[in-house]
Amino acid sequence: MQTVTVDPIERSAIRKVSIRLVPFVALMFFINFLDRTAISFAGPNGMTKDLALSAAQFGLAAGVFFIGYIVLEIPSNLALHKFGARRWLARIMVSWGIVALLFTWVSSIPGLYTLRFLLGVTEAGFFPGAILFLSMWVPSRYRSHILALFYLAQPLTIVIGAPVAALLIEAHGLFGLAGWRVMFFGVAVPAIVVGVVAWFYLADRPSQARWLTAAEKTWLTAELEAEERARANASTQHSMHARAAFRSGRVWMFALMYFGLIYGLYALAFFLPTIIGGFEGQFGTHFNVFQKGLITAIPYLPAALALYLWSRNATKHGVRAWHIGVPALIGAASIPVALYMQSPAATVAVITVTACAIFSALPNFWALPARFLSGAAAAAGIALINTIGNLAGFMAPYVTGAVKDATGSYHAPMFVVGVLMLMSAGLAFAFCSRARLPKPGDGIAPVTLEPQSHSS
User: Fold this and answer.
1) Equal fold, 15-206 vs 240-438
2) Which of the chain's termini has less CB crowding within 10 Å, N or C?
3) Which helix H or strand E contains 185, and what residues bound it?
C-alpha cells in the first residue's frame, strides 16, 4: 500500500482552517436553521391558538419563507461576489436577526405571512454563500470532509435547539410575553450578535488571515489559484449555452431527486413538534413543554452520527448513487409507518430512522451534480436544482397542513412525503444504471451537457 506523505505546511494550514473557520461558520448555520424552523416550536406551544391558525395556514406561514428566499437568492449571490463573503454573510445575519426579532410581537395571520416572507428575503444567499466561503479556503480534496463537518450543524440545531426553545417557551410571562414570543426573542438575538462578530472575525481569503503563517498563506493561495485556473480552462473547453441545462434530462433528474429529499426534510422539521404535541390525544400520555422539546431532539442526534459516518464512507470510497438512493428508500418506507405505531416510543424510533435517512442522503447529493456538470452547465444546472429544492421547502409544509385539514390526520400527508422520497430513491438508482460515476483519482473529467442537435 502506497503511503501518502502530507507536507507539514499543508497539514498545519488545513488544521487551522478546520479549527478557526469551520466551527464558526457552522455556528452561523446553526443559528440560521434554528431561526428558520423556530415557527415549528412556536406553533404547537401557543402561537397556533393565539393567532387562530389552521394547519394549512400554519403550513403556508412556514412555507412562504422559501418564496422570499427564491426571489432574492441570485441577487444576493451576486452581491456576495461584489462586496465579499465576510461582509455579505455578516449583513445577512444581522438582517435576518432583526426580522426574526419582530416575530416576538406578531399579532395577526397577515403579519405572520409578511414576516416569514421577509425572513426568506433577508436569509437569501446565506447557505450558498457559506458553502462558497468555505470553498475559498480549502483545496477540493479536503472539501467533502469540511462540508460534512459544516452540515453537522443542521441536525445538531434540533438536538440543541429544541430543548433550548422549550426552556424559552417555559419562561412564559418574561417581559410580559407569552412563552412562544419569548422563544422568538431568545433565538433572534444570537443572530444579530454573531453577525456583528462575523464582520470582525472572518477574513475573505487566506492572504488576509493573520492567524496563518506566511508559508501557510503562500501554500493555500497557490493551491486555490491553481484550481481556479483549472476550472477556468475547463469552462473554456466545455462551455455551453446556459439554456441547455434547462433542456437536459440529467439536470432535471438531479432537480427532482433533490426535490424529494428537501420535501422530506422540511415536512419533518416543521411538523414533527406538532405530531409529538398530539401524543396526548393519541396515546393518552402527558409531556410538559421541555419534555416535548427533548423528544423532538431525539431523532436528530443519531441523524448527526449517521450523517458523519455515511459521509465519511462516501468520502473514502467516492460518492456513488446508492449513497443517496439507499437512505432515500429507507426514508420513503419509514415516514408513513411512524404514524401507525402504537406508542410514543415506537413512533419516535421510526421517525429517528427517517431523520437518519434524510440527513445521510443530503450532504452526499451535491457531489453528483458537481461531478457531472462543468462550465456553464454547473452554474445554470446547480442554480436550477437549488431552486427546485427551495420550491419543495415551500410546498412541504403547506401541502402537509392542507392535506391534514382536509383529512383530519397526518397519515395522508406523510404518505405524500413517502412517495416523493421514493421518487428520489428511484431516480438515484436510475442514474446509477445510466451513468458511470468516476471513482476518486480515476481521471474522468466532468460531463458537460451539450445542446442537442436533434429534437427529442
Assistant:
1) yes
2) N
3) helix 179-201
172-181: Cβ within 8 A, 24+ apart: 177/104, 178/46, 178/50, 179/45, 179/46, 179/289, 180/41, 180/42, 180/45, 180/46, 180/47, 180/50, 181/103, 181/104, 181/105
Give pLDDT, residue 453. 32
Q: Grid coordinates in use for 61?
A: 406561514
% residues pLDDT > 70 (the chain): 87
The CB-side HSE value for 135 (13 A sphere, CA atoms) comes to 11
pLDDT confidence band for 6 (50 / 70 / 90): low
**Confidence at residue 242, expressed as pLDDT on a 0 to 100 scale:** 55
Q: What confidence score (pLDDT) does residue 218 get?
A: 92
pTM score of the predicted model? 0.80
Nearest to 310 by CA among 288, 332, 327: 327
- pLDDT for 431 beyond 60: yes
The CATH code belonging to domain 240-438 is 1.20.1250.20
As its CATH architecture, domain 15-206 has Up-down Bundle (1.20)
Q: How much is the CA Rg of the chain, to the nearest whole Å? A: 22
Instruction: List the domain boundaries for the chain.
Output: 15-206, 240-438
Report the alpha-carbon distance of residue 387 to residue 427 in Å, rounded. 18
